[in-house]
Structures are given as structure tokens and as C-alpha cells.
């Protein structure tokens, strides 16, 4: 009887220990390795609740951990890596939400990040106006784009050979246009509002997001001849961009020169690594026509529309939309159904 009791207790303990052990993930491998991240892969575990990954540079004394990996996941990005460095990683499975039923750590998988090769500093600049009628207000668009891995732009100064900003027409807080930033993962539309004006020749312009948070500012000036727009970009710490397209559109504040001839826009940009790029755009200003005749020739067309949160919409849906037109103007509309 004593042997039977001992055997029963041993059997129950063995069963409990067996049930408490979650299966260990297998078939580890690493893919999509770049100079700054890599993708960890593994075979899914049956009955798992969540996973945890730990990784480190080989020889480092401590691990970095990645949590919140769901039961349906079998891949996870490993971020914040250094170029030309060898790392090791492991994964652990948990079969309950309280981290009590955890597996052993898996076998170790290793990988080496590649060398980072920067793209040349070559931002593309396009500065344009919505019409070319002399001595009249027009919409001014300043557009800058960069490819991935180019050095970040530190400062930008755009000047012109003529024209002026009609700052006297606007008060503090008045809307004078909008800005659109397109990245690989997001689209942000912001409203440009007149800031502090020292006189009719110098003012700050503030940029507000869809919930009226201040997200940036720059300055505009009237020079003896032409205008100047100056901005300094905040340093994000890595000196390189992932690529973007940025548009700033001034509505009804820029005035064309009063005489016919070419209007030049000069752009000077310096990267955070002290690279320099100069660029020139030009457009012909004419005085032998009128705004009404120009409107007869060019029909205003809708080019795109965004939600109030700055999301580019594929189709018009219920809610508040911002419609953008080919002449640089925009309208807010409410779609009820």
C-alpha cells in the first residue's frame, strides 16, 4: 500500500510538471537583415498565449527583451542594431497570460548586420505658383523630397528674385495655408497659421496638426527684392532620413512681381552632416492677361482628399474631408452620407 501511495504521488507530480511546461519554439532563422534591424522567425507553438524574445551583441553581458508578441505571430522585428555587428537571439513561449507556464529558452540563432551605405545628399526641390499674372496674389507651393538614407536636411533657405508676402492682410492665428508630409508609413496634413509679426516684412508661421497641437514653425520675410523662407529641422539623432515628400502651400499671401519676366526661386539646403545643395526654379510672369481669362483656360480640378486626421483617402467617406486642387487651393467639406 505504501508503495502504491508513493507511486501515485510521484505520478501526479510528474503529470503536473509535464502539463506546466510549454513547448519550446523551434526552427529559428533570421531574415531581412539591414544595418539597423533584422526579422526573427520561428515555427508557431500549439497552445501558446504569447512569446518573449531576448537578443544581444555577442559577448555583451546583458540581454535586451522584446515582449507583447501575440499567439498568432511567428515573426518579429529586432530593432536598434549597429552596422557590421554580430548578434544572438532566443525565444521563449508562454502558454498562459500570467507568465507561469513558460517554456525553456530556445536554441540560439545568430546573424550579422550589413554595412550602412549612405545615399548622396540630393534633395529634389520644386517651387511653383498657381498662376503667372503679374501684381496679383497667387498660391505658392514649396515642395521638397528626399530618398531613403540621404543625410537629413538641417536648414533650408528659399529666396526669390521678386514678389512679396502680403503680411498686412493677416492677423495672429489666421490661416495662411497648409502643409503635407508623406513618409513611407504616414501622411500628416497640418494647418499653417500666422504667428508673431514684427512688421509687415517679417513673421513666424506656426504649423498645427488636426487636434490643434503646435508641431513646428518657420519664418517668412520680405527682402528689398523678393522673399525669404527659412526653416531649421530638429535633429532626430541619426542624421539620415527614411525618405519623404514635404509640401508647404501658402494661399493668397504671396504676390507676384509687378512686371513681366522670369521669376526665380533659389533654394539653399544644408544637411546635418554639412553637405550643401543649391537649386533654382523659374517661371514666366506676364502682364498682358488677366485672372479671369486665365480661369477660362484652366479649369480647377480636384487632385486628392484627406481625412481630418491627415489620412489620404481612397474614396470619399462620411466625415470631414480636406480637398486639394491643382491650383494649390483647398476646401474643407462635411460628407453626411
Task: Tag the structure with descriptive keywords.
mainly beta, 12-stranded antiparallel sheet, elongated, 2 helices, 337 residues, 48% strand, 22 strands, Immunoglobulin-like
Describe this protein's structure.
- The structure is a single chain.
- 8% of the residues lie in helices and 48% in strands.
- Strands 8, 9, 10, 11, 12, 13, 14, 15, 16, 17, 18 and 19 form a twelve-stranded antiparallel sheet that branches.
- It has two domains: 111 residues, Immunoglobulins (Immunoglobulin-like, Sandwich), CATH 2.60.40.10; 212 residues, no CATH class.
- By secondary structure, the chain is mainly beta.
List the helices and strands and how they pair.
Blueprint lengths: L1 H19 L8 E3 L6 E4 L8 E8 L6 E7 L4 E4 L7 E9 L14 E4 L11 E6 L7 E10 L6 E8 L3 E2 L9 E9 L3 E13 L2 E7 L5 E9 L4 E6 L11 E12 L5 E11 L4 E10 L5 H7 L4 E6 L11 E7 L4 E6 L2
Q: What's the gist of this structure?
A:
The protein is mostly beta strands and 337 residues long. Helices cover 8% and strands 48% of the residues. The protein has helices spanning 2-20, 291-297; strands at 29-31, 38-41, 50-57, 64-70, 75-78, 86-94, 109-112, 124-129, 137-146, 153-160, 164-165, 175-183, 187-199, 202-208, 214-222, 227-232, 244-255, 261-271, 276-285, 302-307, 319-325, 330-335.
Amino acid at each position: 500500500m505504501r508503495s502504491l501511495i508513493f507511486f501515485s504521488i510521484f505520478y501526479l507530480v510528474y503529470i503536473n510538471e509535464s502539463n506546466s511546461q510549454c513547448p519550446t519554439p523551434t526552427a529559428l532563422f533570421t531574415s531581412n537583415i539591414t544595418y539597423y534591424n533584422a526579422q526573427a522567425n520561428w515555427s508557431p507553438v500549439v497552445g501558446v498565449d504569447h512569446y518573449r524574445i531576448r537578443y544581444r551583441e555577442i559577448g555583451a553581458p546583458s540581454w535586451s527583451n522584446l515582449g507583447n508578441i501575440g499567439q498568432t505571430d511567428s515573426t518579429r522585428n529586432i530593432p536598434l542594431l549597429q552596422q557590421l555587428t554580430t548578434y544572438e537571439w532566443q525565444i521563449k513561449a508562454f502558454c498562459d497570460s500570467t507568465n507561469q507556464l513558460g517554456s525553456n529558452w530556445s536554441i540560439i540563432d545568430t546573424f550579422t548586420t550589413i554595412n550602412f551605405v549612405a545615399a548622396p545628399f540630393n534633395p529634389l526641390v520644386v517651387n511653383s505658383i498657381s498662376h503667372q499674372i503679374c501684381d496679383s496674389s497667387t498660391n505658392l507651393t514649396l515642395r521638397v523630397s528626399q530618398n531613403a538614407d540621404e543625410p537629413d536636411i538641417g536648414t533650408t533657405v528659399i529666396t526669390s528674385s521678386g514678389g512679396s508676402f502680403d503680411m498686412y492682410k493677416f492677423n495672429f492665428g489666421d490661416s495662411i495655408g497648409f502643409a503635407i508630409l508623406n513618409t513611407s508609413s504616414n501622411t500628416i496634413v497640418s494647418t499653417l497659421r500666422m504667428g508673431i509679426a514684427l512688421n509687415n516684412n517679417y513673421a513666424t508661421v506656426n504649423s498645427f496638426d488636426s487636434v490643434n497641437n503646435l508641431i513646428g514653425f518657420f519664418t517668412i520675410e520680405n527682402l528689398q527684392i523678393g522673399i525669404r523662407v527659412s526653416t531649421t529641422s530638429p535633429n532626430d539623432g541619426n542624421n539620415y532620413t527614411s525618405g519623404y515628400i514635404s509640401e508647404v502651400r501658402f494661399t493668397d499671401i504671396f504676390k507676384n512681381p509687378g512686371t513681366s519676366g522670369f521669376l526665380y526661386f533659389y533654394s539653399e539646403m544644408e544637411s546635418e552632416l554639412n553637405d550643401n545643395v543649391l537649386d533654382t526654379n523659374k517661371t514666366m510672369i506676364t502682364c498682358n492677361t488677366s485672372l479671369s481669362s486665365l480661369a477660362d483656360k484652366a479649369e480647377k480640378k480636384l487632385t486628392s482628399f484627406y481625412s481630418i486626421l491627415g489620412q489620404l483617402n481612397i474614396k470619399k467617406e462620411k466625415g470631414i474631408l480636406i480637398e486639394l486642387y491643382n491650383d494649390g487651393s483647398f476646401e474643407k467639406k462635411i460628407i453626411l452620407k
